[in-house]
Design a protein that fits this description.
alpha+beta, GTP Cyclohydrolase I, domain 2, GTP Cyclohydrolase I, Chain A, domain 1, 2 domains, 6-stranded mixed β-sheet, 6 helices, 8 strands, binds zinc ion
């Protein structure tokens, strides 16, 4: 993995709790709302203000949506197809937009991902790339971990000859607070298989640069 740009994140994957939903979801939303309201009270905000009256409920609702990837059963259904054409060149989808929430500060980081693989026996529909990305983005996340999870998913589903993911993102926790570096872009990459070979990586970068 390589990093360019300034966000000091640890890369330890850690284990993620699964969010079991169903009947319990309404109760969970209500409990989150209670805690958010307590935070707003601690900030001495006037909760009678019409703009703040139901903010705790909206935030709770929004968290459940933004962390949807943690839900049990949220995994994207990815059907693979036999590679009948024996296609053995690079398949790439670039500039896939995404939004996620930084694990450290619970504020957004967002940007675009470039995902490529070289098939072996199985291929997937191109639209699946963004589904996979979204699944891993919708949770408290680190850019490094997101990058690795997407490439690992491709590897486990397709057993390709190789795969590569590059993510470019802006982190609001960097831009809005502390060191304040507006516009700074953090770049992460993860490679598997044949992408370890320089010419293959160069082809990826060449395709990336092409308009
Ligand atoms: Zn952060």
């Amino acid at each position: 993995m390589t990093r360019i740009g300034g966000h000091a994140l640890d890369t330890e994957a850690g284990t993620e709790a699964r969010l079991v939903v169903g009947e319990a979801e309404d109760e969970r939303r209500d409990r989150i709302a209670v805690h958010v309201r307590a935070i707003l009270e601690e900030l001495d905000l006037d909760l009678a203000d019409p703009n703040l009256q139901r903010t705790h409920e909206r935030v709770a609702e929004m968290y459940l949506e933004m962390f949807h990837g943690l839900r049990e059963g949220a995994e994207p259904e990815v059907t693979t197809f036999p590679n009948d054409e024996k296609y053995s060149h690079m398949v790439m989808e670039k500039e896939i937009p995404f939004y996620s929430m930084c694990s450290h500060h619970l504020v957004p980081f967002y940007g675009k991902a470039h995902i490529a693989y070289i098939p072996r026996d199985e291929i997937i529909g191109l639209s699946k790339f963004s589904r996979i990305l979204e699944f891993y983005a919708k949770r408290p996340q680190l850019q490094e971990r997101l990058t690795e999870q997407v490439v690992d998913y491709l590897e486990s589903k397709l057993a390709p000859q190789g795969a590569m993911v590059v993510i470019e993102a802006r982190h609001l926790c960097v831009e809005m607070r502390g060191v304040k570096k507006p516009g700074a872009v953090t770049v992460t990459s993860a490679i598997r298989g044949t992408f370890h070979e320089r010419p293959v990586r160069e082809e990826f970068l060449d395709l990336l640069r092409r308009p």
